[in-house]
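Table S5 (text form). Sequence records supplied for joint modeling of the two-component complex.
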Amino acid sequence: MSHPLTNPSEDLAKLRDEGFALEWRSGHLLIHDIPYVTGSRTVEMGTLVTTVDVRPPSDHKMHFIGSMPHLKAGGEITGIKHSSEDKLLGKNLLVNHLFSNKPPTGYRDYYHKVTRYADIISAEAAAIDPKYTARTHRLIPSEDNTSPFLYLDTASSRAGIMASAQVFSAQRVAIVGLGGTGSHVLDLVAKTAVAEIHVYDGDRFHQHNAFRAPGAAPVGTWEDGQLSPYKVQYFAEVYARMRRGVVPHTEPIDETNIGDITDLDFVFICVDKGPVRKLIVERLRDEGRSFIDTGLGVQRAADPQQLLGMCRVTTGTPGHYDHLARNVPMADVDANNEYTDNIQTVEMNALNALMAVLKWKRLSGFYADERQEFHSTYSTSFNQMNSAERMA
Amino acid sequence: MNEVSTVEPELVAEARRAGIALREHGPYEVLIGNETMTFTARRIQDPIVTGAQILAAAGVLDGTHHLVLQLLVSGETEALRSSEVVDLRASGVERFVVFDTDRLFRLELETHVIDWGSKRISGRTLVLLAGRDPAEFEAWVDARGGEDRPLEPDETVSLETAEVERFVVRPISVLIYVNTRPKTLDKRQLTYMEVVKLGFPDGPFNENIVYTIDYMNGPPQNPEGQLVAGDSVYLKRGMRFNVTPTDKS
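The corresponding structure-token record, covering 641 residues in total, follows.
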């Protein structure tokens, strides 16, 4: 994805053409070289910072890097003053103030918004000496683009959590098994800035799989006389609409290729064969890797028309492996499901995936983790989430 | 006075339970307990003792606010005042209980009338007073004309009402639910494997198969949570378990 300045929309292009010193950094637009009057009546350069998403802009406020701009006559420019607090908006993006100035009809676009703040502030400096202007025509290189998304993650910038969201940007992860649970894990992880998502599954995506997958498979997915697509191919195409870095692998993980996932930052294990789970969990444990194993079971209640579901996530990280043997099933109760029902439901798959992704996000530092559990279960009939194996 | 203790003390409680007559001379070892039926062995030289001497043996020096109760072999109780005298050899006393109180509260337990020194009594104490093992028996409130009510071991009942409370003791019968199916147990604790077998009587079982178990509505010792191999839990009526092999994806 090219950032908004490489192929700018009309309002950003106009700012650039007028000579504003623009830079794109961590999902924000920076306007450098804003001359302002300081409290000691000198003139210094500051930087305005704004998110860029919809037009008209939903947020009329503007951040600023520098000290509080003053009037030539003295005193702070109260017309823009809102709050002053150091805040990290993204990697390498620390701002010092938040300004607020909203014209009666709001801002039409980002040209309107930037010029208004720039002019209010720089006019005071220009009054001291007319040589001061924000339109310096200085070209500033924007960061190498590391975002995998094809369009901007304005959800994170709008919510002001771009700095938190960036914890994922260097991660390379794998999802082993793209069944009901694995596909929901992919749906969630795809929306984070991880660099690579390797998905492994040797199965094809059949009609019945559509009813436990995220989104809606279109009618043309299966054609008479043709083989159904591989699951990894189907999902790689769906998420390629939004981002790069989803890498499909039609070979399932076994002894011959397990080495492919032992140096990734994180592995989500979403398989339903005991021996495969055992192979992966034990190898990742032996290599000191981080992973989460998922599993669920749905059975009939005393009233056979009602179901009883339980799902589990068990986490392994360096130094935290002793609890795995007593919590992770490494053999199948009924390997071919000949005698027992293999009941799974989409919401159990989705909840299992959610529990896994939430834990991964806590481990990554995106969410606070106070419980620090390494095993968690949810039972539908109890409506109860349990945490166990607390190692804090 | 003349006894130098190279002589082994006569264990009063044991002899009484075995129906053996006590020796003529001491020393004697008596069990003195408190309202939770926790007993300590104390040595008494003389077979003829006063309430005050029992209190002294229990470490109570000022007995004005205390009370001694004799637990008789018959299952009844009898108070022993400070100056009152009892001959260990002749009376049916088995053990003593000392209360930090000056009031007695009457209750009926099985066929016996008992005057008890605390205003509340627990299910567990009632079972012990009836001479039964709390691992196998539990107490019930015997409601006159109404429905009997079971008492959990640490649940207490007030003895202060004007009516005399009635209790009976029955073998433990605890109704729990495993995967929504009712099961009745005759004991108060289960291990992980016992719960697995209640959910999946036919298994399969081997060292790689793991069943995930969680539970709710348990007693204060374990109200809700998970069970893994090697664990056990205390039960409570109405407690619920879910047992599942969580191996699907």
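Note: Chain A touches chain B through 47 residues (CB under 8 Å).
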